[in-house]
Amino acid sequence: MENEMKEAKLRFPLEKTCLVLMVGATFLAALSWPHKQIARTLSQTVAAIATPELPRVTLDTEFPSPAGKTITVAAGGDLQAALNRALPGDVVTLKAGATFTGNFVLPAKKGTGWIVIRTSTPDANLPSPGVRITPQQAGLLPKIMTPNSDAALSTMPGAHHYRLVGLEIGVSPNVKTNYGVVKLGDGSNAQRSLAQVPTDLIVDRCYIHGNEKGDVSRGIALNSARTAVIDSYISDCHAVGMDTQAICGWNGPGPFKIVNNYLEGAAENFMLGGADPSIPGLVPSDIEFRRNHVHKPLRWKVGDPAYGGIHWSVKNLLELKNAQRILIEGNVFENNWGDAQDGFAMVIKSVNQEGSAPWSVTQDVTIINNLIRHCGSGVNLLGRDMSQLGIQMRRVLVRNNFWDDINGARWKAEGKFLQISDSPDVVVDHNTVLQTGSLIMTYGAPSRNFVYTNNIAYNNQYGVKGDDAGSGNGTIARYFPGAMFVRNILIGGNSRDYPTGNWFPKTFAEVGALEREGDLRLSLLKPYLAKGTDEKDIGCDLASLAKTIAGVTTVLPVEARR
User: Fold this and answer.
1) Do 254 and 282 touch, CB atoms closer than 8 A?
2) Among candidates 92, 108, 262, which has minimal Cα distance to 185?
3) Nearest 10 degrees: CA dihedral of 170, 173, 177, 183?
């Protein structure tokens, strides 16, 4: 499993189901009402739909005040001895620029104070808290390097209250295969109870990486509890014919805070699940995933002018297989293409990966205020993986996101926005989507309690299309019974194919003007202003989105991609 990642249910209240089934009739009856009354009725109906539960816990990552002694490790010093000697409240300071080669372990200690392991570089010369470290600042950091396939840094069972600050942790250039640079917790059968799980761990302004040409499974194995990765840079996690991730967890309960990082992984940049947890009943829970730049460099893309010559296995930017109560907000997801998978930016499903964890479930996922660009397709929602049955995936909210350059030809995929099967309680609301393929593709069992409102997207050839069903109304009736499908702009679509209460301009120019030079803004034409179910403008509020993602990456879209 370390060599290759293999690929509490709540009942929907009857009264909410009835509300969804009544939506179509309610909207038709309301057409003669004043606009504000229509909007209030629809807004109330949307609010009645079961929406995801947000994380119940958010981690405090304020820097602790050291209360103990300082242990200094000079160049050539014994780092493991210093770690063994440190007590809660101590600070272990490593000489900036020095290299410590080995497979180091964070021991379990008695007490509850934090042990800080940090660079000797003064705080004034480091990025301030909340500012991401970059490889250009590596000279300010000590290096902890693994010379082999094992982790450079790992944890003992029950290790707790460690904060890593300003460290470079990587793989020596001559290592051909590494199975994880940093291992927080144990993903194997050796970790079979919560008592063994390391907890209260913070990776703060650290540069974690593989090497340019070697196979590196993942930057951080996240099999711990109460763990944060903040303001860090994780890169060169890639392999030929093997799954790799910047961060991946499957045998830790959470909560997790992943905020303001650069994440670079060839297969999945960030993934939860992918292997069965050894701890009975474990579902990673309460995940805050915000303000990350989730990116695959074009030097990994075969055929691109920047291609570096090694065909790493590429799948998606984010994948959830066993996780609940996840907030995905304010991120920039960038560059994904068809390769070892179909080119979706995001894949969300429930998977009992190896057949030993039937409790596996993905539920309560909120995807809000993100920029997703330069991808072969948008998001794939699979309620049940019939070959690996877990608990049905449910309750996903996709709201106020900009899906830019979802282009099948350019990114070697089908250019779809949404692929969905057997996924109940899904709300897709206030998105702006510039895609070249189908709007929605569906198959298998129906997806009940589906809401698609206030979105702008291209209809293209098939629009909303399911297996063995006509485009538009035929598919909606068969695969989305009782769906709420109103107040959307379907560019190039035809009104006869869709429910009443949507718009069908022929071109994007009839919708408005998209400003990209130095700003990210959509100026809608008058027919679409304040006409949403919530009395807001149709589509993503791009001005608000630009504020949310400010500083996540320095590059905003600068040219039209259609």
Assistant:
1) no
2) 108
3) -10
Rg (CA), the chain: 24
Three-state DSSP string of 234-289:
EEEECCCCCCCEEEEECCCCCCEEEECCEEEECCEEEEECCCCCCCCCCCCEEEEE
Q: Angle at the Cα of 279 (from 275 to 283), degrees rounded to 5?
A: 65
Residues in Cβ contact with 109 at an 8 Å cutoff, skipping those fewer than 6 apart? 86, 87, 88, 115, 159, 160, 161
Helical spans, DSSP H, in 451-541 = 473-479
Give the Cβ contact number of residue 505 at 10 Å: 18
Per-residue DSSP letter, 474? H
For 74-104, write each residue's pLDDT tens digit: 999 999 999 999 999 999 999 999 999 999 9
End-to-end CA distance of the chain: 42
Q: Describe the strand order of the beta sheet including 153-155 as a list of residue ranges.
A: 104-106, 153-155, 182-185, 218-223, 245-249, 268-272, 316-320, 344-349, 377-382, 418-421, 440-442, 464-466
What does the pLDDT average to over 521-530?
A: 94
What does the pLDDT look like over 313-350, one tens digit per residue?
999 999 999 999 999 999 999 999 999 999 999 999 99
Give yes or no for a contact between 538 and 528, defined as CB atoms under 8 angstroms apart.
yes
- Residue 320 is given by DSSP the state E
CA 246, 250, 252: angle at the middle one, nearest 5? 105
CB-side neighbour CA atoms (13 Å) of 485: 21
Question: What does each C-alpha distance from 85 to 70, 79, 89, 156, 383 come to in angstroms?
Answer: 11, 10, 12, 15, 49
CA triplet 143, 146, 148: central angle to 5 degrees?
Answer: 160
Question: What DSSP state is assigned to residue 553?
Answer: B
How many Å apart are CA 46 and CA 144, to the nearest integer? 51
DSSP string, 397-415: EEES-EEEEE-TTTTTS--
Closest among 105, 86, 82 to 94, alpha carbons compared: 82
User: Tokens 């698609």 label which residue?
Assistant: 452
- pTM for this structure? 0.92
Determine the pLDDT at residue 27. 44
Query: At which residue do the structure tokens 């800080």 appear?
Result: 116
Kind of pairing between the strands at 394-399 and 451-453:
unpaired
More confident residue, 521 or 511: 511
